[in-house]
Amino acid sequence: MGPTSLRLRLVVVLVITAVSLTSLTGAFTLLTTRHLTLAQQERADLRQAYANAALFRATLAANPLGIAAATNALQQTANSQVFVRVDGEWQVPRPQAALTFVPASAISAVDLDHVVTGVLNVAGQARYLVGVPIPAVSAQMYEVFNLGATSATLETLLWFVVLGTLATALLGSLIAAWVTRRTTAPLVAAAAAAHEVAAGDLTIRVTTRGGGAEVESLVEAINTMVDQLSQRIERDARFASDVSHELRSPLTSLVTAVTVLDAQREELPPDAAQSLRVLSTNVRIFQRLVEDLLEISRADAGALDLTIENLSAATLTRYAVTSVLRRLGDSDVELVLDPRDPRVLVDRRRFERVMTNLFENAQRYAGGVVRVSVVDRDDAVDILVDDAGPGVDEDEREAIFERFHRGRAAHDRAGVTGSGIGLALVREHLRAMGGEVWVESSPDAGSRFVVRLARGENP
User: Which fold has domain 6-153?
Assistant: First the structure.
């Protein structure tokens, strides 16, 4: 699994932070409000209960026989009920109803002249009980207050807190997405530019706006790096081109002189003839190297001369393989053609150069090419070149297409000559034609070079 997006991580952190702070603030507000509301309600209820107890004692003291009148004089609201016991007798029509609201433990405590307060759950509803002893008239008064209104208020507040938290999460997500998008936009642009540079486009430059001093410093460093890299590549390419051009004239003279001497080889002494053969071979290798360097320089400068044609893949491949085999003096190669005979968009001269380099590479390092296949991939056409070698290690499959890279096979074969830019030229030629090349394992245990060409239109 790949690394998580920085933008996503920032959004998640900001949203979690916003939701956590909102939740903590809401919970603190809810708990504080609940505590203060209940405390205020209980103080008010306790004051009312004390007032009723005082009223009952005063009324009964003035008229000891007027218990009913004293009970009726008590202040009651829609949210409270009063129960009175005088000399152990409930002064209500249904004494059993009082026991529903007043627990036995509260009665025992009040009988001992203790004031009792507490929250009860009666039939699923919260009630606040106040028990007050009135020893002057041998009575006890119990007042039960319904906390339903207060509970409803607190429940409404809870819903507001929940909805506020959800709204904050949504709003926080939108704000976080907007902020992180603006914050990471320069980094995204820098990453895209880095990918373009890695792909070979050295004209790309990163521009940023509002990214902050740190991001601007990063962008400036990237642009400076690309400028220096571009200048370095231009210097290297110019050097290779200049050297190749400077070598071309004397090399031409040298090749001409060697050719003249080679025509008179039979007249030379054996030692001189052998030296001439070695000289002729090395001059031709040197000439090929200079030509490859010039071709690489043209590719770097974007000056490759292309003539793209819509050709039959089978005819193109058969002609190129026959031509290469004729030059290399080999003929034992299996040619497998796709029966659908797809067409390709290709420069035939550069395709033949591609095949020549692949065949020469196989001949030097892999025992030669054993099979060439044309495969129609519907959206492209692959030319598969299988060799008889031991294969290319996975860690070298990309490196062998770099300039002047000589793989393990080149070091393992003594006396094998090569410039190290043949496969680099293969890639450059194919890129210029809109194709690509890579190497993989062959089913026959050797290497398989896959040349992918753009598919053409059937006539």
Answer: Beta-Lactamase (3.30.450)
